[in-house]
Amino acid sequence: MSYTDLPNSPQSPGSMSSRRLTNRNTNRYSVTALFSMAAEQDVEVEDELGRAQKRLRELKSRISAQSKRNFVLERDVRFLDSRIGLLIQNRMALDEQHEVERHLEDVDATEGHFPDDRKLQQYSNLFFLLQSEPRHIASLCRLVSLSEIDTLLQTVMFTLYGNQYESREEHLLLTMFQSVLSSQFETATEFGSLLRANTPVSRMMTTYTRRGPGQSYLKSVLAERINSLIEHKDLNLEINPVKVYEQMVIQIEEETGSLPPNLPRGVAPEVASANSDVQAIIAPRLTMLMEIANSFLVTIIESMESVPYGIRWICKQIRSLTRRKYPDATDYAICSLIGGFFFLRFINPAIVTPQAYMLVDGVPAKFPRRTLTLIAKMLQNLANKPSYAKEAYMITLNPFVENNKARINQFLNNLCEVGDFYDTLEMDQYMALSKKDLVIHITLNELYNTHSLILQHVEVLSPNDKQHLRILTDELGAAPAQVPRKENRTVELQLYSRWETPIQDIQSALMDSVSSSDMLYMETKSIFVQLIRSLPHVADKRPYNLAAIAERAATTKDATLVRKGIKVKEMLRELEEQKVVERTDGYRLMQEEVAAELVHLGNLREKVLAESKSLEAVYKTICDHNNYLRGQLEQYKAYLQNVRLTASKDKGASTGVGVITVGGKEKKPSKPQVLGPYRFTHAQLEKEGIIVESNVPDNRRPNIYFNITSPTPGTFIIALHYKGREKAILEMDLNIDDLLEKQKDNKHLLDLEYVQLNVPKVLGLLNKVFTKR
User: Which residue ranges have biased composition labelled Polar residues (predicted)?
Assistant: First the structure.
């Protein structure tokens, strides 16, 4: 077992003291742990714990890699969202269209070439330096523009420190955060704007919460609470008097066929607020909203111990930096800054758009969606100083804020109570020099972009030409240009330092810190633990007969166990000569410590299995999100083809619309062909989440079906039919432009009078049915 196999290894290093057990005659626990890590680095014990740890490592590695893929896909979707509006309005030049197309190309492993061995070696040195000395990246993050930050963040969060569950990388990343936050506080001009504006720093903090541990926390804490709320599709908890009044008027008109003269449409907010019927509708809703918000709050407060260590540590830095910069700031004001990070950038986005965090299947219906928005507003008002200037009606929920303010401040302060990691980081850095497997997987464009950004700011980052960063960048020379997307292959980059001497012998490196007898004792104990885990049934017999275990290992048919058995017999003899252990009492001291370590490992197995189960769900969620994002990209591909076909008559116009280019080749559009109709039942569309809400009575739904036709590329007709009737009950003309624009504007519902459809899923269906016909 190594330190990186511990469940939640980046948890508070202070909690590691519970592992100290009875390590004898040393006050240097960190050195003892370091020795254990070194001794066990190349040991793979094949018991149940070893297998569980191996599975957990593999799972964490898959989550880290998939998180990066999702981040890249989200960037592509964001880019295409911003460009698609121009395409829709025919305001995009031909070269811009080609740029959009390039965002849809896949990497071709046969295209392009890697840097030569010498260049890769130089990049290996550079990226080891960047990873192990986070101050350089911290400075760079402050120097780049907002338009450059996403590309840099991709490299920093998901490549340079991409192993999200490995303590050394996590701690180096947090050290970088501390430097960035310190600078932000130093340059702040006013307290109120700290950490709230959309800056590279705030983008960094948001991106950090989207890594695996943050996603895992959100799913385990919020998913059940949100899903139980959205089951109540018809529960309307709107409290904005204007909206409540409008809904009331519409209902009266539907029921009576007319409106009484004292209920005109479009009244002012104060008139709506003063209406006694509106007040009577809102009153019970306020009570229910406060109950629901309280249930969310209790769940979040009770989850404090499972908040990822890194997020708690950032909260701690915000508190510490605020106290130093503003010594007169009240605890209330400090907590508002911590809450601004924890709620505004972490918790609330997942509550408002749970589908984007894959906490729910599909988009919540209209009423629960509004309720979730109100809950997020209430939590934000609780964490921050409430402002009711824009939404005066929210003041009616002030009792929730007043009743819970002290509780939330206590929670935010408790979040900050975690230990620091500098001792363990020093130990991890030391260990890194003895490892041969420090590797990152980085694309060519990430390499070249980081190289280019460093060169742009090298005078600030490394003003002295004798500094390591300057030496490496001078040797590398000019940064290569970005390669085309399909040539942007991934390189496996071994990281190592050209200035530090790799540690060949951990034992001799530690001799100054630990006596030789202590070193011998620790290694002997470590080998006995390995032998008991490796030999069948030995762990069942208590107390452990260490001499017999050594003899049994030395006489097995397994060469590795034989070598260890012979070695540990000799080590016991040496310890006996040094009067550290005694044969006469059965080596009682060591026997007790070996037993205690095995008890700890037994408990650890349960934790590893529980963590694996939790992370399996997270991995599935991240993969689902990846599929959702890929679906969106497929819709854009289909759109790019359709928009040019439908506008073929404008070929050669200045907008460039009218020519479909696929893979760089122009194709002349053929004569439009009517496709369909394709038939889908109400049950089919409901099962796939395409129908979000339905007003069709349950007993009539089996007789309802939908025909979808595409008369021309990019246009569709959805017809709602009832079995036995020749004519459609309702027909709607759809244009792919309108659907994409709705999606871009986060308008996820399409109203077909009798049913409401999920826009992204409708797009997915149209893409699936029509693009390959």
Answer: 1-18
**Residue 298 carries which side chain, given as an amino acid letter?**
V
Asked if the peptide bond before residue 260 counts as cis, ω within 30 degrees of 0, the response is: no
| pLDDT tens digits for range 421-437 | 765 666 566 556 656 66
Structure tokens given for 301: 């407060």
Instruction: Please name each of the domains of the chain with its CATH number.
Output: 210-415 (1.10.506.10), 671-770 (no CATH)
Q: Using the predicted structure, report yes or no on whether residue 311 has a pLDDT greater than 90.
A: yes
- What amino acid is encoded at 317 in this protein? Q
Side chain identity at 177, as an amino acid letter? Answer: F
CA–CA dist 81, 501 (Å, integer):
49
**Cα separation values, 22 from 42, 550, 607, Å:** 24, 22, 22
Phi, psi of 474 (to 5 degrees): -60, -40
Contact 495, 488 (CB under 8 A): no
Amino acid at 237: L
Peptide bond into 543 cis (omega under 30): yes
Q: How far apart are CA 386 and CA 549, in angstroms?
A: 67
* SS3 label, residue 159: helix
- Strands of the 675-681 sheet, one edge to the other: 675-681, 704-710, 715-722, 730-735
**What's the predicted TM-score (pTM) here?**
0.66
Which amino acid appears at position 736 of this protein?
Answer: I
CB of 129 closer than 8 Å to CB of 462: no
- Residue 287 CA to residue 299 CA, distance in Å, equals 19
Distance, in Å, from the CA atom of 675 to the CA atom of 571, rounded to the nearest integer, reads 81
- pLDDT at residue 76 is higher than 60: yes
CA atoms within 13 A on the CB side of 597: 23
Is pLDDT above 60 for 611? yes
pLDDT at 617 over 50: yes
pLDDT, residue 223, reads 92
Nearest CA to 13 out of 318, 303, 424, 308 is that of 424
The per-residue DSSP string of 463-495 comes to -STTSHHHHHHHHH-SPPPPPPGGG--EEEEE-
d(CA 560, CA 534): 11
Q: How far apart are CA 212 and CA 161, in angstroms?
A: 12
Kindly tell me the burial class for residue 543, based on how many C-beta atoms sit within 10 Å of its own C-beta (0-12, 13-18, 19 or more): exposed
> 598 and 529 in contact (C-beta within 8 Å)?
yes
Nearest partner of 583 among 569, 599, 567, judged by Cα: 569
Hey, what are 295's tokens?
């249930």
Burial-class residue 23 by CB neighbours within 10 Å (0-12, 13-18, 19+): buried
Percent of the chain with pLDDT over 70: 78
> How far apart, in whole angstroms, are the C-alpha atoms of residue 325 and residue 185?
7
Nearest CA to 754 out of 693, 672, 713 is that of 693
